[in-house]
Amino acid sequence: MKRIKIKAGTRGSKLSVAQTSDSLERLREKLPFIEFRLETISTPGDRDRKTDLRISPADFFTKDLDDAISSGKIDCAISSAKDLPDPMPEGIDWFWLPWSEDARDVIILPEAQRGKGTKAQSFILNQKSSIKNHQSKIRIGVSSARREEYCRRKFPKAELLPIRGNIDDRIAQLDAGKFDMLIMAAAGLKRLGLEDRISEYICEAELPPPEGQGWLALTYRKGDRIFNEIRKLFVKSVVFAGAGPGDADLATAGAVDALGKCEVCLYDALSTPELLKHLPPSAMAVYVGKRMSAHSSSQQEINRLIAKFARQGKRLVRLKGGDPTIFGRLAEEVETLDDLELPYRVIPGVSSMNAVGATGLMLTRRGLSRGFSVMTPRKSGSSEFQHVSREERLRFPSVFFMGLSETANIAKCLIKDGRNKNEPASIVLSAGNESEQKVVSGSLSEFARSVIKIPKGEAPGIFIIGENADAKFLLKKNGALQGKRILLTCSDAIMDKAVNKVREFGGIPIRMPFIKLVPCIDREGFGLRLFSCKWVVITSPSSARIFLNAIKEFIPDFRHLYKARIIVCGPGTSEEFSNTSILPDYVAEEDFGAKGIIKTAKSIIKKGDYILRVCSDKADKRLTHELCMMGAAVTEEVIYRNVPVKHEKLPDFDAVLFASSSAVESFRDNFGLEKLKGNYTVVIGKPTLDTLKKLKCRSNIVLAKEATINGCIDSLAETIVERELCLRRN
């Protein structure tokens, strides 16, 4: 494809150039068809070296970059995220890049005094004694009100002096004797290779870092379709989840699962605090309570927070009472994300309307009532009671359950009763079933004349008539995967991880494992070989999980295992050990799979070492051969079998993921590989790719850049974004 040329701007400081150059290189790796040209631009903070940073304007280090973007001089800029003003200037959009550095602040001492028990170090190591014993004040260079407040609390006798200049300038002033101590950000020092100048890290609890410290942000003209598309690779789908009517037991499993994975939760007054117990300890919970006439946050502020955390790349859950789609002002929050082309998904909740029926006051009773109306006595923007007129009630959406076979008759009767024949209407099939849900839309007249084709089958359908049923209101597919249906053929062992990643990129996961893993461990022999080996080699998360289960079942005393050292093929496999008392000794840092194991093993395996390789019955023999070539004695311990799964029907899909050759073969045996033609086929590694080629598969094959489940979805997303960028550029 034709290369896209982008002019990227940054400040001229050594740190800015270094971190921007590194970021552009990382972007090139993801998007190799983009050609970046770096331009340095002076900002007010670079030209004015006298103004105390504690009183400087919010855009001191970004104003000229923003102006250059607005004028078209540059296409984008990369800055330290903590330097961005809030709110951003009109017409400038942004997002955080995912590669962050240590967010903590640190203490820097003069080069000549480091490690020599100076008065500055005495303050650090023994504050109370220092304050009593030292007559003179130490001079501390500070550049923010936050650091100043910390120093006044920690070093009450110190003299606090403003300091300006880039990192090298500040350290030079320190070493020249102008200051006895500096407080700076660890991130900048590490990015410039000056980590050795750090004397002490300051605990985040004592000096909380400002938002964005350690992160980088990319800014660009709002609405730029190229950067909106690129951003999709670095943000995650916002989750709008229903908390239910008040009892934590009535929250859906989907909402609880989303809370368990989120980093930020914006929650309402109507959602029970009990649900917040599902948040990870590190997650931020922000109360944005919404009650009539008592809103702690305006809707505009809530919209701003949603967009802000989404652009930071956070896993955000917007927890709303009841069902967010009913009287929850969800439409306004969704419109904010649509305007920015940011991805999201909705997890419906149990509405208080449903909970009413649990009292016995059921809204429908056979022979008594076959329907009901739901409304609010107030109009938007008003707290006054306003009666609903007959004319307005006639314009309300009409909803029919169990009426698919009678849609034409329903439509004819509604037109006869006076409803506009051109009024929108839609059928929602399998509502709430993510992988099977479909919507068919048209006018009331078209349904009356049976012009609209309704899919045949047993899927339940709901017929909706009214302006609300217009197809223009269907939720947008803003993610990198564009709402595409991704068929996940992997085993249950790694299915959840694949599903979550697809959802984060705005795709629709279709769970359809084509293999299942059946443990087949020789109990007695496994234990003997484990105790006698020097190394255990594990090449997949599935092998790790089954291995650990076997250890727990057969060998409850883990101390016996410590004779063997464990090598795993990458962080994904290493993660399986995180909740156990066993940790891998070596983890491959690249080429996750057999290649990574070989690279790692070359520096540690000695001739004659006994290696136990735990694997499946379908494991590639090449790894064992390579280890033997190093002089090791290798036993392949088959701990599980890959058993094909039989399926009767293949759902519609846009892309398929294969995590093993076994899954490819099972798919072929079920439906034939010709079903892959025209779709994306993403594979986890070269052995699976070789299998597809051997079977002469004709498909748009995507080889994962990293041999992990997350790597598969990342590579698929990058491929789709590359295609979209090409279309948008043309």
Strand order across the largest sheet: 22-27-26-23-24-25
Mean pLDDT: 89
Rg, please? Answer: 30 Å
- Please bin the fraction of helical residues: 25-40%
Q: Alpha-carbon distance between the termini? A: 11 Å
Indicate the low-confidence ranges by residue numbers.
127-135
In the CATH hierarchy, the architecture of the largest domain is: 3-Layer(aba) Sandwich
CATH topology of the largest domain: Rossmann fold
Q: Which shape, going by the Cα principal axes?
A: globular
The largest β sheet comes out as: 6 strands, mixed
Number of domains: 6
Overall CATH class of the largest domain: Alpha Beta
What's the count of strands?
Answer: 30
Write the layout of secondary structure elements.
Elements: E1 4-10, H1 14-30, E2 34-40, H2 44-47, H3 63-71, E3 76-80, E4 92-96, E5 105-108, H4 119-125, H5 127-133, E6 139-142, H6 145-154, E7 159-162, H7 167-175, E8 181-185, H8 186-191, E9 198-201, E10 216-221, H9 225-231, E11 238-242, H10 253-261, E12 264-267, E13 284-287, H11 299-311, E14 316-320, H12 330-340, E15 344-347, H13 352-356, H14 390-395, E16 398-401, H15 407-416, E17 424-429, E18 438-443, H16 444-448, E19 461-465, E20 485-488, H17 492-504, E21 508-511, E22 515-519, H18 523-532, E23 535-538, H19 541-554, E24 565-568, H20 571-574, E25 586-587, H21 594-602, E26 610-616, H22 622-629, E27 633-644, E28 655-658, H23 661-671, E29 680-683, H24 686-694, E30 700-703, H25 709-729
Helix pairs in contact: 4-5, 9-25, 11-12, 17-25, 21-22, 23-24
